[in-house]
Structure formats: structure tokens, C-alpha cells
Amino acid sequence: MKFYGLIDGSEKSLIHFLGTLSGVDQTGADSRAATLATRSIKTTSKRFAIDLVISMVDLTTLEGADTPEKVRALCAKAVRPDPSDLTVPSVGAICVYNDMVSIARAQLDLLGGNHIPVAAVATAFPSGRASMAVKMQDTEDAISAGAGEIDMVIDRGAFLSGRYMEVFEEIRTIREICGERAHLKVILETGELVTYDNVRRASFLAMLAGADFIKTSTGKVAPAATASVVLVMLEAVRDFYQMTERRIGVKPAGGIRTTKDAIKQLVLVKETAGPEWLTPSLFRIGASSLLNDLLMQRMKMRTGYYTSPNYVTID
After folding, report:
1. What is the DSSP string of 12-28?
2. What was the pLDDT predicted at 310?
3. Of these four, 35, 39, 262, 313, which has the most CB atoms within 10 Å of its CB?
């Protein structure tokens, strides 16, 4: 790996590079995120925006009570979010624990969802606290079971202790295991990183180590995908592209539950990283209940009225 010519792979060069990153103006980031959140889109564009968001959803179930039946039902919803309207697009991915990957992959294929990847949360999700051998085996097991995407968590304790090279090497190792078999999303768990400067630093570290996506959160820690944090990460991928001509994706997860929230995310993307990121290959939203609201809002636009809550499954 050439590290895009920004570092030579040594701890010294990594620390030096991270030290040269500009700091984040917290007040400015909060103000800009709040301003962008007030933007509205025309009604004629809302239908397009809703369909775009649906195609970006990583439909997720990450509960200890998950069952094969629940995962199969979720896969059916992923392939045909609204069985009464075949113009509704499929979702971006199904996101599950390792032991459910083979079940999800088989069910998606059975239902004609071959194009929908299965994302597995790996590397001792959600804490990230396990030996490297366990994390490596966790990743290999997920890919062997059919995962096309790996959502790995970084060791926040190591990062916050300044052990940047340790975090870098973990990401690089998981990237090598993924190879061409799976895309790698790196979860920063921004709610535990404390400062926007840390979010920016962790974003660049993950991208340098080989991340295809940087992801805000596990969804298990609050705060999760705040508008300001997503803004900082979008600025990071934009700046990284300007340095390397490589586009890295962003995935906010946790707390995005309504169509209004999701459309605000699209505005953030367009105005910060640019319209090139408005595609499922570069922007995803990790969510479970969001899809229900998107479908209800879409029905309202099609029929003029809100349907019964029974119209969609309540997850």
C-alpha cells in the first residue's frame, strides 16, 4: 500500500501528518450544520430525494434477540420495501451480526436481491476490545459466510491514548483481509471521540489505512450521527479527495429516524462534499426504523393521504 503518497507507513510519518491537519472550528461547524439543516427542497424534488435515501439505507438489525426469521423478514423488506409499488428501489445493504450473514445472503439471493450486499459488523463490535487474532478471525468468518461489506470498529481507547499507529495497523490488517472480496467501513464511534479535532484526525487515519467508508457510530453510543459530526467527516473526505483524487464514502448511523432527518443529510452531503457523493456507493445511512417513515411519506405523495401505521412493518 502506498498510502496515497501522504505518509510512508511509519509511525513517525503518520503522527507528523496527523499533526499537520487543520483544527476544526467547533462554533463554525455547529453554525454551518444548523444553517444547512434549515434548507428545504421543492416538492417536485422530494420524491426523488426519498427514493435516493431508500437506496442509501443500510437496513439494520443488531440486537441480541435477533432470530433467523427476523433477518429473513428484513431481507424481504430490503428487496421489496413496498410490495404494492414495484417502483420503490431496494435498499443499499442489509447490516447484521456475523452469525446472521449466511442467512441474510441466502435469503436475499432467494428473493432476487443478489445486488444487495450483506454488511457484517465485525472486529468485536461494538466495543472493539478484543485481541487482533479475534478481530481477524471475526472478519474472515464474515466474509466466508457471504459478507460483501465489513463494518469494523476502531479501538477508541488506543486512539484516545494517542496510540495512532496501533489503530492504523488494525485497520490496515483488516483491509488486507477484505482485499477485493469486501468493502471496508470503519466505525469511529464519534460519541466517544469527544472533540471535532479527534473526529477529523480519526477520519484521516482510517482513510490512510485503507477504509472505503468512514462511519460515525455503532448506534449503541450517544450522541451518534449529529449533523455537526457528519459535516466534519464530509469535509474530511472532501479534503482527502483533493489530496489523493480518491473518493471515500461516509455512513452516518444512529438517530436518523425520519424522512426530514434523512433529507437534511442529503443537503449536508451536497453542500459539503459535493453532488458526486450523492450515490449509494459513497453515502449510506445506517438505520432500522427510517425506512418505515420514508415509505409512509412516499405513500402520502402518491395518494395524498397518510396510510394506516399497519401499512409498513414496525420494527
Report:
1. HHHHHHHHHSPPP-HHH
2. 58
3. 262
**Pairwise CA distance, residues 125 & 100, whole Å:** 14
Cell representation of residue 58: 443500510
Burial annotation 176-192 (CB, 10 A radius, 16+ → b, else e)? ebbeeebbbbbbbbbbb
With 0-12 CB in 10 A as exposed, 13-18 as middle and 19+ as buried, what is 122? buried
CA distance 300 to 80: 18
Pick the CATH number of 20-302 from 3.40.50.150, 1.10.760.10, 3.20.20.70, 3.40.50.10800: 3.20.20.70
Give the C-alpha separation, 216 to 194, whole Å.
13
Which positions are catalytic? Answer: 151, 215, 251
Q: State mean pLDDT over 276-293.
A: 96
305-315: average pLDDT:
59
pTM of the model: 0.95
